[in-house]
Design a protein that fits this description.
Blueprint (H helix, E strand, L loop, with lengths): L7 H14 L17 H26 L3 E12 H7 L4 E9 L5 E6 H11 L16 H19 L7 E8 L13 E11 L2 E10 H11 L7 H19 L6 E3 L7 H5 L17 E5 L2 E11 L2 E7 L2 H6 L1
Antiparallel strand pairs: 1-5, 2-3, 2-4, 3-6, 5-6, 7-8, 8-9, 9-10
Helix pairs in contact: 2-5
Length: 318
């Protein structure tokens, strides 16, 4: 059977990934999001999500009696705000509780794919479906299917953590996500999902803050290949070289003094301000208001300079 071309939603996910990972040259560093998933952590998640995708696809084939396929597309680290921007409306978003993992887990599937799945469950041929909320008869069928899907999710995550998955509320759009803090981080797994002729990109979101300790506890025994080890060493060397050659503003300071605001306002050229710094006390050498050394003032030829000396505590220990 000839393979159908990727849908527009699949192409959007692939395009987003290629823009993030395929651009040459320097990559921007987000200081608001310094913690990123390590390669070994992504590897652990990939194994878990691929296991989930296989079970998910087999379950759909069995329950819907239609040609179904689910495959992992990507694993990304996104904020709530970035994730909402990737969603289309209307869509089905189910909230899930994974105990003992904290936070809310989200399972999102496009509404046309959900309606097509329900049509197959009821013996229908699939095909174009109306975009509307589910009826009171359709909702129990969907919840039953989602419960079975969550069972496959718990099985896929067994290698990381034993969880009990419980289905919560079901929404029909991303509006309810507006109540979440927009900067909260998510681990977003995207899956290419096919139910008959209907295709979409389904997403599974796990709370980043809750999953990171679990991944760190399981990431210490991962064996990396020689290529991965070489890439890790190269990255460490490049970061080290970049940090050692980065210019830093250094200040040599006297001890601070306290003055009244009226005295400061009344200062004129030629006024003398006593510093109250003992003559025998060294000056503080600081970076970003943090003292890391002590020095005495002097000169080097015609230029001002300072000589680094032991600090007061170092001097007493000697």
């Amino acid at each position: 059977m000839a393979q159908s071309p990727p849908t527009a939603s699949v192409n959007r996910v692939r395009g987003r990934l290629s823009r993030r990972s395929g651009s040459p040259g320097l990559q921007p560093y987000d200081f608001h999001r310094p913690i990123k998933l390590a390669r070994e952590h992504v590897r652990l998640l990939q194994i878990a999500f691929e296991t989930f995708a296989r079970g998910f696809g087999t379950l759909l084939n069995t329950r819907l009696r239609a040609q179904c396929q689910v495959s992992l597309l990507a694993i990304e680290q996104l904020t709530i705000e970035e994730y909402i921007a990737t969603l289309s409306n209307p869509t089905m978003i189910a909230t899930v509780s994974l105990e003992p993992v904290g936070g809310s887990t989200l399972l999102e599937i496009s509404l046309p794919t959900v309606m097509t799945s329900l049509d197959h469950m009821l013996g229908g041929p699939g095909g174009p479906q109306p975009e509307r909320p589910l009826t009171d008869l359709e909702m129990p069928l969907l919840r039953s299917l989602l419960d079975r899907i969550l069972g496959e999710l718990a099985y896929g995550l067994e290698g990381l953590v034993d969880v009990t998955a419980r289905l919560g509320g079901i929404e029909y759009g991303s509006q309810f996500l507006q109540g979440f803090p927009p900067s909260d981080l998510l681990i977003v797994a995207s899956f290419e999902m096919k139910v008959g002729n209907e295709e979409c990109v389904a997403t599974l979101c796990l709370p980043f803050a809750s999953m990171l300790p679990i991944l760190r506890n399981h990431g210490t025994d991962i064996e990396l290949s020689e290529t991965e080890l070489a890439a890790k060493r190269t990255a460490h060397r490049n970061i080290t070289q970049g940090l050692t050659s980065a210019p830093i503003d250094v200040a040599v300071r006297f001890r601070p003094i306290r003055m009244r605001s009226s005295d400061i306002v009344g200062l004129r050229p030629g006024d003398v301000v006593p510093l109250a710094h003992p003559v025998a006390a060294p000056l503080a050498v600081t970076v970003n208001d943090t003292t890391f050394a002590h020095a005495v003032p002097g000169n080097h030829g015609s230029r001002l300079a300072c000589l680094v000396v032991p600090g007061p505590k170092e001097d007493r220990r000697s």
